[in-house]
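Lecture 7 notes: from sequence to structure.
We start with the chain below.
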Amino acid sequence: MLDENTLRVLPKAELHRHLDGSVRLGTIAELAQRYGLDVSEQELSTRARVLTPLAGLEEVIARFAIIQKVLCCYEAIRRVAFENVEDTWRDGVKLAELRFAPPFIAAGKRLGNDEIIEAVLDGVEEGSARFGIEVALIGILPRTASMEANRSATADLLACARGTHRGAWRLLGFDLADSETVRPAEEFLPLVQQAREAGLGITIHSGENTSAGQVVNTLRVFGPSRIGHGIQAWNDPEALRLLREGGVTLEVCPTSNWLTHSVPSLEAHPLPLLRRAGVRVTLNSDDPQLMGIDLVHEYALAARLYGFGLADFLEMNRDAVRASFLPEELRRRVLARWFAS
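Predicted structure tokens for the same chain:
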């Protein structure tokens, strides 16, 4: 059995971590105190962590309210972005993609998308320089936000990606997240097409707590190169065929799927079945601070429950690097340095 020390120093690539969904408890408390925000000790102890399964994805998303509250200004967001990079570095990550949703952060505040994006870029740029890991950013549209807010966020994300900010080159991906059935996928297609035409990579949350049919629909409507979660495809021949033939990579997050009640247990998670079916699968932490885990925890879980060894992890990490939205030259460099054997 692989021990924790071995797994911690093991080089890793992570494609699915929500920057604005993973804030350290100590940082939440400090930001609340600094900016005079109404966050009680009881809230911190009972509402800022999800450690046992809740009724479903929507109930877990509701726990993000405290995090959303403290992402209240440029400096708070910049700090959280920096700390996310530090946390990935502590997990042994050599290539990371962090995603964030400007409409989620901005809701109910006098805070523009441009200020949010700039704060994230600055924090990530500082963290990458400090810890020496390659980091890309993915902009998210929350499906539950108004279409007006999402159109505005898309325009600002694409303007940033084309801009001259020192970290703008890191904004390389585009995503849809949260409740998958709140609106028809086709309503978001024009925004996804704008992002694709601007050169951004496309990854879509799909098939987490919904059906394999949703995965099939996502593949046919959006044609993404990656899918966030996608685990419900495991026993659907059509979904598996489309994933294999399209070379689509799944960003899988076992503990998160358990906590959102998307799988009945960690033992029953379809991760090993998806791999055996020939689907490209990567291992990720999703919202590690919210869920009281780290990426090393997910590796230990996969080793213990699914029998994964170093060769399995190497294969998944190679697939993660190849599926990354970072420039090809950087991907080649990371592969050659950390994942050659």
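Points to note: The longest helix spans residues 113-131. Residues 206 and 263 are 14 Å apart (CA to CA).
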